[in-house]
Amino acid sequence: MLKGIRAALARHKNKAIILLAAVAVLDALLIAQIGALHSGHASLAISFLNVGQGDATLLVFPTGVKMLIDGGPLDGRVLTELAKILPPTDRYIDLVVMSHPQVDHFGGLIEVVKRYRVGAFLMSARVSEAAAFAELEKALAERGVRTVTLGMGDAITNGGTEASVLSPTTALLTSKETNDACVVMEVLSEGITSLFTGDIGGKAEAALLPLITRRIDILKVPHHGSKYSSGAAFLNAVHPALAVIEVGKNSYGHPAHETLARLASVGARVFRTDEGSVTVTPHGESLQIFQ
Amino acid sequence: MVFDFFYHLQDTDLYGLKRIYTNVISCKLLVISMRSYDIFFFGALFFLLGVLVASVGVKAGALWLFLALELGCAVAWTFFERIPSRFQWRIARKGWLAMAALLILLPAGALYYTQDDRNFRAARLPTGKASFSGVVADDPKHSGTSQEAVLALAAPYTGNVLLRLRSYPVVTYGDELAVSGAVEPPAPAGYARYLTKERVSGVVAFPEFSVKGSGHGSRVRAFLFDVRHHVTAAFARMLPPEEAAFLGGITLGERSELSKEFKESLQKSGTTHIVALSGYNITIVAWAAMGAFVFFLRRRWAFALTVLTILGFVLMTGGEASVVRAAIMGGLLLIAREAGRRYRIRNAVALAALVMVLANPKVLMFDVGFQLSFLALLGIACLRPALGAFFKIPEGSGFLSWRDNLMTTTSAQLAVVPLLITSFSGFSPLSLIANVLVLELIPLTMGVGFIAALLAAAGEYLVLVCGWLAWVLLRFEIGVIKFFGSISLQFAPAMSVWLIVVYYAALVGFIIYVKRHTRRARAA
Predict the structure, then answer these.
(1) Which value does ipTM take for this structure?
(2) What residue intervals traverse the membrane (chain A) (predicted)?
């Protein structure tokens, strides 16, 4: 009988090799999957993604919960950047936040919603008449994604992480300027505070001042480093250790040298996404930054 | 292309047709007895020749060629007895007469092309900045920041124009659009030729437009496009973008999602044909359809439905040249089998080319895909057996029969080298290795892709499991393509018409030499 098996093996040597290789690969995948389920992410990771002129930030909380704030422009570069960070079999994003309905912030989210399973889609009550925004709403409806409206005073808690919504107030929400209606979030996790500001300008910054009660470690610089944002009063209140500008090739002169000077004067270390995606993780008492 | 239907019959041995196929391949090169099948073959050949001469643009060239060939026939007929008998192509004297009669199809082909071209040029396009309307005539192509749609113009205008539009609102096949913009002649020349082949007369860049209505196209096509979109959407949900785009290319020939850098890697590594549909896709579809239908239905019904499925697949994927060719030849093979008739690859090739040229005479000269597909097929059908005999390589030898793949790739590549050099960046000798490494896994990847597409209808979680397996395979293939794309040694000498003629003459000479040699060896 052994002889028979040996003869059969010799005859189907190639097939046997393929079969064994396939089984080995599938086993490895399965083990990797199980491993991923158990380990989760040990610590917080904030990635400012290089998506060109636009915003996209992925936060992975210590529990492994993922929150994507904005998705960059329509060309879908956010997908490529996400693929670099998330494991290939991970097709789920817990929370997607849209700061405000401008195409350099939500454009990439259309494809994100189509391609990933999204736990919930969070946005302010501000909507847009743009054709692309209608497409986003269509994609959300088709994929059956729950949408939640956020406003000042709302908060999300997960494990030891707390994300509080500082803006928009009702007054800002109805402002003529869409940028004033941005969702601004302060995230406190593992003793690190970070502030995500969308495209806010002076008016919204002024409204934020009384709400900023502690020093911010990581600031997402408002409006791609526009000179009309990141006012001196605001920066003094926030006093960031690390400031990240999400910016790409543009004709608006972002980031403005005035803004860069103001950031330097409060002693912030400045990183820009047009030089590559920036990932920040806590490391003991300090921050580790990868670019 | 390389994964050609007929080559793959050897692996899959669809209905035990392998023997018939090898007989067909080894038939003598030029035994002209003017049976019905010869009449068809030469008739088609002359017609195609006429179309070719007309599309090159030599005025009255077809007429001169016709007269010269007629003269040749007359001479051959007169001096028939003097042709030494050791040439294989002794033909009955009346054969030359039949040939002379068939030659009339040469000017007919030229006329057909000219007439078609005249009709195309007669299109009435809007001039200057104008408002016009029409119906989207094909499945629009979407890239990140824009979409391209072919618009069939409505009265008072005629003809087709290409609309380049911002991404949203999304337009779909059969939509009625009202457009306000200027129709420009396409540029540069190469792109214009491509659009001419696509029967597009002008380009409108980013006009104002609105969608007036929908559902004006064929219901069947709209449904099939919808199926395709669902499949690509399923791929996009189960895989990262690069892998999803590549899988879409392998299974459905969907190339719009591939990044520019990756397309360049494909070209430099000589593996672009992998994302073009070909006989192999048809084989899988035919095999799966036949397998499924035979289970429930009588053989004859299963056969009919399989042919319909192939037709549906071709329509769904937008009728790319290589897949139409493969479908015609594959359909013919199935019909020959059902009717108990002999399948001649020579005539199948001629029929496929004839049907495609009748449908659009411009493909012969202006569609590189058409040319690549047919040349590669001829390479695999004629050169591959000769190479195998010359190097004395037994069938199916080597680990995963890599020698087979190497020979197929080599013969296909050798057959298209001049075209790669004149139409693309050139030819990389390393592409042979890249192909052997990748091609081995493509069938499996394709299979997983099609299964995933079917499972997508059942539920999202099942598809994810498929995604894991697909990801491993795709990652490897993409890795190989990128690696060979980065180290490509492009070989691109200056080509002239004469060099090309000499090159193909040498290939044909080699095939004839090997055939003679093996025949003599067998006789001895």
Answers:
(1) 0.85
(2) none
